[in-house]
Amino acid sequence: MAYEKKEQLYEGKAKKVYATQDPNVVIVSYKDDATAFNGLKKGTITGKGAINNRMTNNLMRRLEAKGVPTHLVEELSDRETAVKKVSIVPLEVIIRNLSAGSFAKRYGVEEGIVFDAPTIEFSYKNDDLGDPLINTYHALALKLATAEEIALIKNYAFTVNELLKGFMKEIGIDLVDFKLEFGRTADGQIVLADEISPDTCRLWDEKTHEKLDKDRFRRDLGGAEEAYEEVMRRLTGVE
Ligand code: TMP
Ligand code: ASP
C-alpha cells in the first residue's frame, strides 16, 4: 500500500509524526537534531536521522521474527517509515547490563561494572517534570498502564535485551544499556514503539570499549557521526 503523507500530528526532539490516509497508520520522519539533558543541550548529528531510521527498522524486523510485536509497518525512504498508530505508554523502560550514565552517578559507582543480571527501571515520560524515575506502584496509582500491561512490558523488555545483546555481540559490540517505549494499538495490543538506535542505547566496542553512541554528543567527545556510521556499517554487514 502506498502511504500518503498528510498533516503533521506531532514534532518531538528527534522525530516528526504525520498522518496518512489510513487512520491506523502514521509516518515517522527522523531528524538529524540531537538533544540531551531534557533538551538543554542542542545540536545536530549529520546523517543521524537516516541511520536511526534504518537501524531501528533492521532491529525491529529481527525482533518481530523472534516474536516481539512492534509498531513497524514499512520503511518508506531513508528517513521515513510507516508505523502502526499507537498511544504511547508514558513510561520509558530502561534496561542495564553494565553500570553507566545515571546509574553510575546516582549510586556513586564507576562505569563498566558488569551486572550478574540485567536491571530494569521506569521513568515517567513527561518533559515538564524531566522524566522522573517512577516505580510500578506509582505508575499504577497514576493509571499510566494496567498491572497486566506493566507485566507484559517487563517481559518484552527483558526478551528484547537478550535478543539485542546477541545481535550486538555478533558485530563486536557490548550492549551496556538502552531505553524502550511501548504503545497501545487501536485494538489494545501492546507493541514495541519509538526507536532502537545509538540515540537510545549505550553501545561499546567489545575490544576497545570505545563509545559508539550518543554519549559522544552528550559528553562532547567528538566523532558522533562516525560512531553512528560504524554501528550501521557493522549491522548491515551481517544482514
Ligand atoms: P541514563 O543512564 O542517562 O539513565 O540512560 C540510560 C539509557 O537510556 C541510555 O542508553 C540512554 C537512554 N536514554 C534515552 O534514550 N533517552 C533519554 O532521555 C535518556 C535520559 C536516556
Ligand atoms: N533525549 C533526551 C533529551 O533531550 C536525553 C538524552 O538522550 O540524553 O533530552
Radius of gyration: 17 Å
The main pleated sheet reads as: 7 strands, antiparallel
Number of helices: 6
| Mean pLDDT level | 97
**Unreliable residue runs:** none
What binds here, in terms of ligands, is: thymidine-5'-phosphate, aspartic acid
Number of strands: 14
Order of helices and strands: EEEEEHEEEEHEEHHEEEHH
* Class inferred from helices and paired strands: alpha+beta
- Gap between N and C termini: 25 Å
What share of the residues lie within helices? 25-40%
Which overall shape is indicated by the principal axes computed on the Cα atoms? globular
Q: Strand share of the residues?
A: 25-35%
Enzyme class: ligase
EC number: 6.3.2.6
Pathway: Purine metabolism; IMP biosynthesis via de novo pathway; 5-amino-1-(5-phospho-D-ribosyl)imidazole-4-carboxamide from 5-amino-1-(5-phospho-D-ribosyl)imidazole-4-carboxylate: step 1/2
Family: Belongs to the SAICAR synthetase family.
